[in-house]
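Allow me, if you will, to draw on your knowledge of protein folds for a short while. I have a record of one protein: its chain in single-letter code and its fold written as C-alpha cells. I should value your view on which stretches of the chain appear to form regular backbone elements. Thank you for your consideration; the sequence and its C-alpha cells are set out here:
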Amino acid sequence: MRTTVTLDPDVEQLLHERMAAHGISFKQALNDAVRDSSTPRADYVFETPTFDVALRSEWSEIKETMADEEVEHFLEVTRRSREDR
C-alpha cells in the first residue's frame, strides 16, 4: 500500500537512526517500527503503584497537633505530589 505520511522531526530522526543501525531502507524501518509498537512486549510487567498508608492510621494524632490551615495545606501538597507521579 502506498500512502503519504507526515512525520514529526523527532520521529524522522528515530527512523534514520534505525536505518543506520540495521542497514535497512526507510520503508523497512517504518514498517518495523509500526510492527514493534503494535506487538505486546512479553517482558513488560505492569506494576500497580503503592503508597505508604501508615500516615492515615495516625491522622487523628496529627490533626490534633496541626492548625486547620496546616491540615488543608498538607492535603493540597500531598494531592499535587500524587498527581505529578
